[in-house]
Design a protein that fits this description.
Blueprint (H helix, E strand, L loop, with lengths): L1 H7 L6 H29 L3 E2 L11 E2 L2 H16 L5 H24 L3 H19 L5 E5 L2 E3 L2 H21 L6 H19 L3 H22 L8 H24 L10 H8 L1 H17 L12 H7 L4 H21 L5 H30 L1
Antiparallel strand pairs: 1-2, 3-4
Helix pairs in contact: 2-3, 2-8, 3-4, 3-8, 3-9, 4-5, 4-9, 5-6, 6-9, 6-11, 7-8, 7-9, 7-13, 10-13, 13-14
Amino acid sequence: MVKELLENFNPQDYPLWLFLLAIGISFLVSSFSYPAIINVAKSKNLLDTPGGRSSHSGSVPNLGGIGMFLSIVVTITLTGAVLDTKILLLILGGVTFLFFLGLKDDILILSPRKKFTGQLLAILLLIVFTDTRIVSFSDIFGIGLMPYWLSVIFTMFVYVLIINAFNLIDGIDGLAGSLALMAVLSFAYVFYRYKDMSMVVLAAAVIGALLPFLYLNFSRSKKMFMGDTGSMILGFIIAVFAVRFINKSELSTTAIYHNASPVLVLAFLFFPLLDTLRIFFIRRFILKTSPFAADKNHLHHRFLDLGFSHWQTTSIIVCINIILIVLIYFFKDFNINLQLALLLGAGTILYSLYFIYNWLKKMKKV
């Protein structure tokens, strides 16, 4: 009877119930997991100790990624029978690989080269076995279809960029988690419009894992960090969403977001990508150091320097990014190059506005 029920069950008929069920399962698993992880981390002294570039004081458990991993895996295991099992298993395979890679880095510290190599292996697993890749530039700057080899290389670059973007912005309370939550909610909506329930449920699993984590991440008495384990898992899943969304949009001229998917993805992930590319330029060409060398030149550090708290900085950044998403969504039917120019211009202005205002105030005093 159960077998017949599963065979005749169409997930597209119950999108809201599946979405809420996945959030509920993930929320419950993570809510019970995080306190246990905090206790174990404290008893075994598996804590993040503040260093020279840290914006925190005191030692904090940094194994929140374990709870995220458990929540996502349990949720997909329980709901996957009615979804696209092949793609979900391959995604979970990549997530599992990055989980152990990140866990080792959180406990023992891995070199950037080993992390990069591990990320490439997880990325290739998906690209090779699903052939889900970015096949064209959607006529941005007049560039269309790419050769297969260039498409694979560019898709790998996008994966690596997004994974490491979330790793790099995880520097203050709530920032990486809140931006991930915003991006995953955005992807859940567009995948719902595409009737891609496997991705909607995966997004719900991530949302359910993030909500309890953010509560603890902002907490003073029970604080925890996601660590490299959490940031790499989140970055990888969001990169999967980005590539799959662009791929689905590009392959069908009748797709709702055929004319806007690359720019929408840039809007969903504007701050992580902006800060990552900015910090890469500063470290490589101004400071002449390794792009992976830790420092306090991130945009969120600049906000802290102006006197904003962690909560205020995170709120400002997330609100600006939401404004950009809404802006581009309303202009999604315009020429794609105009959309891109609008996003880059508006994003640069909005994120620079307060710094310009503060500079002008100082100039008046002089």
